[in-house]
Amino acid sequence: MAKTAREQKVEDPRILRAIAHPMRNRILGELSAAGHLRAADVAEVLGIPANQASFHLRQLAKYGLAEPAPELARDGRDRVWKPVHEHGIDLEISAMEKGPGGKAAVAVWQRQAAAAARAAVDRAYSSRKSRDTHVMISDHWIRLTKAEAKELAAELIAVQDRWQERTAADDGGASRRRTYNLMTFLQPAPDPES
Question: Which InterPro entries does this one have (predicted)?
Fold first, then answer.
């Protein structure tokens, strides 16, 4: 993940325990997309029981990724959650691997992240055109220096951030919206021999 000034740098490998779990990772994505949600909202969107959504939200809070947002609650019984790091996190994998249990935590997280990425690509290629969704697959080749690649990554993240802020702030369109997963890979092309 490219680092921007708005992302929180994370070096503690324990954070991977939270985001290696597919449901918690999805809930964190929904929180980030919406800006804030109640456990009942998470349950409805993901089709899981509310107590399961509450459990995962508490686990995300335990690892410092989600927090209660009482200022957004309707009353004293209403529990609203928001992401701690509004603009995401920057996983410092090399630093994480050096910590106690870091190599194992990174390996588990990488396997889960790779499986999720493969599943996302498979869904994109096998999806049918639908009236209420749009799927785009983009495969571009660009010649860049390392500094230019970092600059391009920062620009792409800035575009994503603007859209996230724009749509999270517009509660009026929430009933018409669904969460989209934008996955971008910016990496050197493989050597022809590999």
Answer: ArsR-like_HTH, HTH_ArsR_DNA-bd_dom, WH-like_DNA-bd_sf, WH_DNA-bd_sf
Residue whose entry in the numeric block shows the structure tokens 């009353």: 75
d(CA 183, CA 124) in angstroms, rounded, equals 11
β-strands 89-91, 8-10 pairing: parallel
| Dihedral sign (CA 46, 170, 84, 12) | positive
As a whole number of angstroms, the distance between CA 21 and CA 98 comes to: 22
Which tokens go with 132?
A: 């209420």
Domain ranges of the chain: 8-173
The DSSP line for 23-58 is: HHHHHHHHHHHHS-EEHHHHHHHHT--HHHHHHHHH
pLDDT of residue 6: 60
Task: Tell me which architecture the domain covering 8-173 has in CATH.
Answer: Orthogonal Bundle (1.10)
* pTM passes above 0.85: no
